[in-house]
Amino acid sequence: MIVFVASALFKKVSLLDAFYKGVKEAMMFVKTLFPSLLAFMLMVCLLESSGIIGFITLQLKNCLPFELPSSILGLALLRPVSSSASLAFLTDIFNTYGPDSFFGLMASLMQGATDTTLYVISVYFSQTHVTKSGYILLLCLGLDALALILAVILTFIAF
Fold this sequence. Notes:
The chain is an all-alpha fold.
């Protein structure tokens, strides 16, 4: 902080004017970003509260050739969508099985190997005003799926 103030004084820059300019630019950024973030957060809340995630995880659990807890599947489904929702599943897994357990390590790998893809894409595209995304969404979700599958495989190999 002292370096910034000293640099501004040395260059004879008005700190207050620079601060106001930065706040104005930040408000313009928030103004362009807020509608897409609001729509995105509303979609996540609707998915969680409607029970669709629970239904999908139950169907996936019945299709898998091996046993996985429904909270692992919930984490895998919601990680590309919402960091806080997937973190809630991760916390549930840690509380149920422990962080050093088989499922705790698998969930940690899943959480660390993927990102909130839909959030990142919506933020980047809203800022760059991209209207035609092409195959970017499919590619990113496919890579998330690959990372999730590799997390499961690596956990089975390591244990």
